[in-house]
Amino acid sequence: MNEREYGHEHGHESAAQNASASNTAGGTDGVNWDAVSSAASSNITIITGIGQLVTNCVEPLNANAPMTPVGQLGVIEQAAVVVRGEIIEWVGRERDLPTEYRYSCRHHAVTEFGNGTRERTEATEADTINEASKRTTAEPRRIDLAGRALLPGFVDSHSHLVFGGDRGDEFEARMGGQQYDGGGILRTVHATRAASEDMLADRALALLREARAQGTTTMEIKSGYGLDVPNEAKLLRVAARFTPEITFLGGHAVPEEYRPAQAGHDARSGSSAPHLGDRDDYVRLVCGPMLDAVVREGNARWSDVFCEPHSPYAFDGDETRTMLTAARQRGLGIRVHGAQLGPGPGARIACELGAASVDHCTFLTDDDLDALAATWLGKQPGAWCETSAEASPEASAATSPETQSAASALERQYGTVATYLPAVEFSTKQPYPDMRRAIAAGVPIAIASDCNPGTCFSDSIPFAIAIAVREMGLTIAQAVWAATAGGALALRRSDIGVIRAGAKAYFALVDAPSYAHIAYRPGVPITHALDLGGHDQPPHRG
Known about the structure:
Layout: H1 15-26, E1 32-33, E2 44-53, E3 76-84, E4 87-93, E5 108-112, E6 118-122, H2 131-136, E7 141-144, E8 149-152, E9 154-156, H3 168-175, H4 185-194, H5 197-212, E10 216-219, E11 221-222, H6 229-239, E12 246-251, E13 265-266, E14 271-272, H7 279-297, E15 302-307, H8 317-329, E16 333-338, H9 346-352, E17 357-360, H10 366-374, H11 401-413, E18 417-420, H12 422-428, H13 436-441, E19 445-447, H14 461-471, H15 476-490, E20 507-510, H16 517-520, E21 527-530
Parallel strand pairs: 2-7, 2-8, 9-10, 11-12, 12-15, 15-16, 16-17, 17-18, 18-19
Antiparallel strand pairs: 1-7, 2-3, 3-4, 5-6, 8-20, 13-14, 20-21
Helix pairs in contact: 5-6, 6-7, 7-8, 14-15
């Protein structure tokens, strides 16, 4: 795995610790970790006792199989999973577990779920491997989930975790009736420019730990609170400590030094800045020196723009197209903030430029949905492709023919996902869009957190799932798919968001017998990332 993927190498809560916490709260025996008597360690982990396994795959044993369609979870009851290193090796019914994984071992676990049902499980002693093999091969690590549900780790494809300052007062004002217009971004810019890289990294790490404790194993992180050359580069360096899914968002808002209407001073930012030009000058800065620095340092995989004609702080269609075209020509993948405050050109620009995702989607029109659906014609979402993994040549932000060819291959395989951000509507009192419209139009959907200091200070994907089910028309199965497989599609990844042979062993464990409890028990911390390493190590800070 890429060392920056915080999901596993940078795990923060071991499964043993999480099980211990669950046991304390519920008075149960919880997950049973089999003690390994051998002094040697094995790189094989066998997970059994899975009451319900969500795979999101039509053929979990086929590494080339596509993802299931939205809402079809590929559920296997009474399942087992075998992991070698950090890659899934086998998936299926526990009774079909191949002989080579049936080491001599007796599991015993007692669990009590939230409904009070007490369930006792005891595995029979399996066939043993021959004695010669036992002397030369370390026993695998074994985890008995005692009837709990397991699903792919949540894939949060839209977040703004690297920032300084606080904007809780804005949330309070919105709850009192003030309308959001995008201006608060400049307050965060002022605080973020003043913060050191280590200060920003400490806050980001705390938020990542929160997200992981709720089942998120992959997280995209955007810049966008620097809005000048050195500070945008600073934010991308911080993000690179934690994830390979990094987005350059120089086109987040027009900073105050390029806003002559207030003579270089924006009261909401809390500072006065020298007047450096107008918004056209800022667009040229993003496309020139800022993008040069981003490409030179090589931390960003993606570029994004806040395309929102309804906000005086964001960018119109022409400005958006100019910035994203420049980024695309330099080898970055494309993402778009679109249709948040009203109908606009963002979704159609995303389709035109081959963007991986258009995000927010609060006010998508029928024409927008038709354009998005057209990008998926003749494509098979989530089929295995080497260039869709985290080592994608796009990540190098180079301009070589090989990189351009790989980017074109991704565009041929993937269309543009409609990514919805349910907790933003909750936090801004915007109307909840009906996500069923996208599904009916044939558009793959994703659910992400949009964790940021202004419009949604929540990194909880289970919370977003509950909102999508209660307010946005989704079934629980559709919402779970959107937060796992859909998020992977939005990042053009086929190695996450699914549980199948060859995929990453990134799992979310539900302390309940069914994935439905994620929405059935809103606000209750029953979902967390399953750390197969059994350790609690902070992300590498260098």
